[in-house]
Amino acid sequence: MRADVLAIGTELLLGQIVDTNSSWIGEQLAAVGIDTMEHRKVGDNLGRMVAAMRAMLDAADAVVVCGGIGPTQDDVTRDAIAELMGVELERREELVEHIASLFGTRGRDMPQNNLRQADVPRGADVIPNPIGTAPGIRAEIGAKVIYAVPGVPYEMQLMVKEHVLPDLLARSGEAAVIVSRSLKTWGASESGLAEMIADEVEMQVNPTIAFLARGIEGIVVRLTAKAGTTEAAWALIEPAEARLREILGDLVFAVDDETMEHAVLTRLEARGWSLGVAESLTGGLIGARIANVPGASRTFRGSVASYATEVKRSVLGVTAEQVVGKESAGQMAQGAQRVLDADVGIAATGVAGPDEQDGQPVGTVWFALALPGLPVEAVSTRLPGDRERIRQFSTISLLNILRMRLDALP
Amino acid sequence: MRADVLAIGTELLLGQIVDTNSSWIGEQLAAVGIDTMEHRKVGDNLGRMVAAMRAMLDAADAVVVCGGIGPTQDDVTRDAIAELMGVELERREELVEHIASLFGTRGRDMPQNNLRQADVPRGADVIPNPIGTAPGIRAEIGAKVIYAVPGVPYEMQLMVKEHVLPDLLARSGEAAVIVSRSLKTWGASESGLAEMIADEVEMQVNPTIAFLARGIEGIVVRLTAKAGTTEAAWALIEPAEARLREILGDLVFAVDDETMEHAVLTRLEARGWSLGVAESLTGGLIGARIANVPGASRTFRGSVASYATEVKRSVLGVTAEQVVGKESAGQMAQGAQRVLDADVGIAATGVAGPDEQDGQPVGTVWFALALPGLPVEAVSTRLPGDRERIRQFSTISLLNILRMRLDALP
């Protein structure tokens, strides 16, 4: 089974928007074992759309078309599919009602243009859109099939997951329910992870195992299983996940959509501990990331970004002479605890560059943790990359150190 | 003149990397008035690459191929072009020397694989790569032309700007030097800007005027001019830029690569003033953004992210009962001035959501400025969007308010 992807939109060609949809679809197709060999982008032009669809259907078993099903005059994906099928568009009453009801709930008058979205090529099937006005379309073209899905990423993703992938799998004679579990890791390289779980990767069939590099969010090990029912698919995931977790241990910091900062706040909240941060090279990034979690106010007291040395001394009480060092980092963590009246204080101080500082090379970073009733602890590392990368890696590294330390407590 | 884009790489189809190169090239082509009507992605497969190149050259006057010119066995763009031309690859001695010298300067042994990058289809031209080992290729195919450029964005961009675009313009009989100037604006919508400069847009020929929406970085008004020489191109830009600046006034916060935080720091440094920040809903974002500028330490003292109400009181000395309000914002700015020993204190406090706070709706934000020898000033706004967007917009809005206030000082 081969499914290719066609993204529609003049704004994509002109670089006003980057086409991330076809990458996302390609990733989903690969996860369930469907080949994808060519992706194209064309503008909102009926003739070129029809020509691209025709050529792509010649080469592939299926084509997923993203975009061009909005309400405006230049949204002509519906018309292109009708032309490809050699049929007319017909207005579907149930879609008119769905669209009108969406406008009703939102308390707005419906522009007449939106009724265009109720037009479907005669003989084609409608793919429901529970969260938007643009229904999707599935059209059989001989032995091949074409799907039209919205360009709005969230609507597109829901439709592809719930309708397009199961339909493609059913056509290829495969089990039609897909579930996946992402184990988010921090602290090992992709090749290191691959070596650790080489035996599992070697014998993977269902679930499949994939590595997804997420930059400063770490590396994801993703399990994807196919089965006849959701329960059966999860029953395939569970033992494989358990084996991977046993091997990966505390490299796994979160699953699926959970973030590092969420993982940290959950652990602190379970102990009833509040958190204060003292930062230097990160300038506020650590606090900003923690504050991004809704409900952070239950745990997060605040952060002191002591960029100037005198602020480290006057606000946080740092007396160590060298401000990038073990003693200074520890005093910063204790300062955060005291000044912000927090149970737990954490700190990062280092050299983000471009210039070295106090004779210490760019990338040198010290992290410290002050936990209730325990002596302050500090570790150092040497981070690669440019200023921005050093600051981002410092942020997630410190949060990860805190997570592992909390897990190691009785 | 029509130039289409072909991106090469199996990792692009599988969604391991998002193809941003073709968007970037599309934007550049549009800026100089060259049409681009179809972009494709194919994997590292010789047969499919040749087929795609052939089909695309049928439809367009030129094709820009990105990627597949690295040193590994699966980099076969060179071979694909040779096959398309019906010629053999030949090793170019000057390229062998260039590649070896790059390895020499970097003090590493050269893997023999890298010599593959010295192979060029017989009869094709080499496009120099001053910053990497992968030379580009230009090949005439009948009356059409194909360019191969690296997939590494920075190397690709340099090659496209310096060689591909001028060559395409020369072929279309147009002036071959292109320069552009980006006026970065904050505070007006795209339609608002379009209305303000409608007359300029109406009469645009050379330079052209384009709007680029950059999300939390505002909206860019970009002028692009073509001429026979760099001097002549700038001479076209200058009067047009002057007219736009007169109309846009202080909406323009920076030009080209300058950022808002850089604009603010430059103004403060010119007055010899240091900066301290007090934040609440942003949790550290404002400080983090300022600290991202190399050399920020000359001006930036630090930031207190007082997330908990008690921290606003104990650290910053806020006495106002309502923590999201005019009085509280003002006291935070003065607290930042005092606690961080800064000449200028700025503050933001507001409701990022998801829940309202003290009866104030999500999106309510107060900003305050404390400047040397002046009474503290505060303004409020109501920002749209979700939690993340409200926090990001608060950050840039506060920096912009400070920029405009500094410009208004004698």
**Termini separation of chain A:** 52 Å
Strand order of the biggest β-sheet of chain A = 2-1-3-8-7-6
The average pLDDT value of chain A, as a whole number, equals 93
Main sheet specs of chain A: 6 strands, mixed
Enumerate how many helices of chain A there are, as a single number.
14
**Chains forming the largest contact:** A-B, 71 and 71 residues
Principal-axes shape call of chain A: elongated
How large is the radius of gyration of chain A? 26 Å
What oligomeric assembly is this protein in? homodimer
Count of individual domains of chain A: 3
List its traits.
410 residues; six-stranded mixed β-sheet; homodimer; 3 domains; Molybdenum Cofactor Biosythetic Enzyme, Chain A; alpha/beta; Maf protein; Alpha-Beta Plaits; 40% helix
List the helices and strands and how they pair.
The structure is a homodimer of 410-residue chains.
Chain A: E1 3-8, H1 10-13, H2 21-31, E2 38-42, H3 46-59, E3 62-66, H4 77-85, E4 89-91, H5 93-105, E5 119-121, E6 125-127, E7 136-141, E8 144-149, H6 153-171, E9 177-185, H7 190-196, H8 198-202, E10 208-213, E11 219-227, H9 230-248, E12 252-255, H10 260-271, E13 275-279, H11 285-291, E14 300-306, H12 309-314, H13 326-339, E15 344-350, E16 364-370, E17 377-382, H14 387-408
Parallel strand pairs in A: 1-2, 1-3, 3-8, 13-14, 13-15
Antiparallel strand pairs in A: 4-5, 6-7, 7-8, 9-11, 9-12, 10-11, 15-16, 16-17
